[in-house]
């Protein structure tokens, strides 16, 4: 394994080149990595609350350069949705039959949810699929947002769009292991509170996967 690159040198093009190289390196061993809700809860199995075949989905980890360093784009879901209402999430959703793979699906969903044109994003690579207890096999697509313009959240899905510094998310000191009782048993998950935003569950698990892929 190569030595981790510095987390505090996010400036210019160096961090972007290092990130792309590390994602390329990790893709060779993608099938060896096991990521998902079950990692902290091995007794649950990969799809604890789903009996059918896994459903394919993709999300976009969109990273943009700011004066103070790169930041990651996240959304606050609207409160009336049937699932994960009000939670923090990456732009993304199910992979449609018309999508040419997870990258196209993630970019399409980001356009539909927050008004981010696909042409403004440069895909850098994918993480290993993240398996959720609700039956999804989620491919996280990492992309650099090259052209920055105002976001336009879809009010039917997204209440707000916000950014979190990449160095905050990639600092393991901010990766809390929390738990709740579900079906009479204590279940564990990652949480990364940031100001008034409570990042947890699948979103925090994917962030942890990015950290483990790139920095360890």
Question: How would you portray this structure in words?
Answer:
The protein is α+β, with helices and mostly antiparallel strands and 216 residues long. The protein has four helices and eleven strands; from the N terminus they run αβββββαββββαββα. It is globular, with a radius of gyration of 16 Å.
Chain-wise SSE layout:
Elements: H1 14-27, E1 35-36, E2 55-64, E3 71-77, E4 88-89, E5 92-94, H2 102-114, E6 121-126, E7 130-131, E8 136-145, E9 158-165, H3 166-169, E10 176-182, E11 185-191, H4 201-214
Parallel strand pairs: 1-7, 2-8
Antiparallel strand pairs: 2-3, 2-5, 3-4, 3-9, 6-8, 7-8, 10-11
Radius of gyration (CA) equals 16 Å
- Whole-number average pLDDT? 87
**Helix count, per DSSP?**
4
The portion of residues assigned to helices is 10-25%
Structural class of the secondary elements? alpha+beta
Q: Give the SSE string.
A: HEEEEEHEEEEHEEH
Uncertain segments are 1-11
Shape: globular
CA(first)-CA(last) distance: 8 Å
What percentage of the residues does DSSP assign to strands (E)? 25-35%
Oligomer: single chain
- How many β-strand runs? 11
| Main pleated sheet | 9 strands, mixed
């Amino acid at each position: 394994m190569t030595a981790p690159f510095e987390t505090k040198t996010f400036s210019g093009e160096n961090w972007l080149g290092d990130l792309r190289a590390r994602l390329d390196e990790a893709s060779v061993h993608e099938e060896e990595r096991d990521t998902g809700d079950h990692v902290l809860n091995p007794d649950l199995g990969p799809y604890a609350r789903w009996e059918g075949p896994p459903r394919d989905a993709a999300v976009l980890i969109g990273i943009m350069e700011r004066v103070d360093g790169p930041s990651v784009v996240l959304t606050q879901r609207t409160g009336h949705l049937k699932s994960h209402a009000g939670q923090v999430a990456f732009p993304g959703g199910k992979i449609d039959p018309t999508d040419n793979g997870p990258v196209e699906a993630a970019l399409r969903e980001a356009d539909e949810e927050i008004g981010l044109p696909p042409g403004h994003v440069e895909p850098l690579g994918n993480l290993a699929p993240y398996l959720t207890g609700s039956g999804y096999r989620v491919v996280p697509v990492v992309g650099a947002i090259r052209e920055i313009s105002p976001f336009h959240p879809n009010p039917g899905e997204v209440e707000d769009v916000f950014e979190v510094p990449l160095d905050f998310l990639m600092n393991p000191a901010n990766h809390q292991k929390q738990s709740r009782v579900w079906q009479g048993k204590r279940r564990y998950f990652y949480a990364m509170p940031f100001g008034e935003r409570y990042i947890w569950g699948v979103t925090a698990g994917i962030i942890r996967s990015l950290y483990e892929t790139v920095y360890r």
